[in-house]
Amino acid sequence: MAKAPSRYPAALIFGAPGAGKGTQGEILTRVPGFFHLSTGVIFRKLDPQMEEARQISEYCKRGELVPDELTVSIFRNWLEGRRAADKFRPKEHLLLLDGIPRTVNQCKLIERYIDVKLVLYFECVDMEVMVDRIRRRAVMEGRPDDASESVTRKRLETFERETTPVLNYYGDSLIRRIDSSGLPAEVLAGCLQQLIPVLKENFVFE
Ligand code: ADP
Fold first, then answer.
1. What's the rounded Cα separation, in Å, for the pair 165 and 170?
2. Rounded distance between C-alpha atoms, residue 138 and residue 9, angstroms
3. CA-134 nearest atom, ligand 1
4. Which of 44, 54, 60 to mutate to test the pocket of ligand 1 (most atoms within 8 A of CB)?
5. Separation of 39 CA from ligand 1 center, angstroms?
6. Under a CB-based contact definition with an 8 Å cutoff, are residues 123 and 177 in contact?
7. Local confidence band at 19 (pLDDT 50, 70, 90 cut-offs)
8. Who lines ligand 1 at CB under 6 A?
9. Amino acid 2: pLDDT
């Protein structure tokens, strides 16, 4: 198996719950050159019989963050599993991280493995738009943490308090603001405009 580079180049898909990160990540992962990973999705796919999965689901249901060490260890194991299965190919794929890092401590913990090249900050000015998107998603996807409005508001508060400091950690030179209130196609165009130069700088295309 090819030796992995010491740090994987990555772009963060960053934004509050309901800002539309998951939708774009899903689309982008079908574009050659990208590998999208969402910690929320990984957590929801864990075997519910595992003790760790049970603990994680309790944090999620309360709208709280999962502890950093546990989050990072699950993230790493999952990523290395995908690499071993040749789904994630470090020489060909720019990682798109959706949902991690969510605290400054997580930024530090992943730094040994992840080289953040860009932060796509999905801005959504109107909190009510996000609450409404999450309400509609609850109906479509049946997520327990989406179903209650009080948990949704708690998640938005958690984002403000614990996750926005992540922006300061990376600083303005890496941050690209994306207006996430537009049509999905417009948001996609905005993301690609930012991501294509990063692909060209970090990967060799034949
Ligand atoms: P959203 O962005 O809409 O909150 P996610 O699917 O990204 O939804 O995450 C669902 C839940 O999983 C979060 O509310 C949180 O409890 C937990 N979670 C996801 N990623 C992380 C992370 N990096 N650190 C801690 N908790 C996380």
1. 9
2. 33
3. 3
4. 60
5. 6
6. yes
7. confident
8. 17, 38-40, 43, 59-60, 64-66, 71, 99-100, 102, 106, 145, 155
9. 52
Sorted by where each begins, the domain ranges of the chain are 8-201
pLDDT in tens, 144-194: 787 788 888 888 899 989 899 999 999 999 999 999 888 899 999 999 999
**Residues whose CB is less than 8 angstroms from the CB of residue 164 and which lie 6 or more positions away in sequence, other chains included:** none
Instruction: Provide the pLDDT for residue 128.
Output: 82
CA of 204 relative to ligand 1 center, distance in Å: 33
CATH top-level class for 8-201?
Answer: alpha beta
Q: What is the atom index within ligand 1 of the atom nearest the CA of 59? A: 16
The C-alpha atoms of residue 165 and residue 66 are separated, in whole angstroms, by 17
pLDDT at 84: 97
Could you read off the pLDDT of 64-117 as tens digits, one per residue? 999 999 999 999 999 999 999 999 999 999 999 999 999 999 999 999 999 999
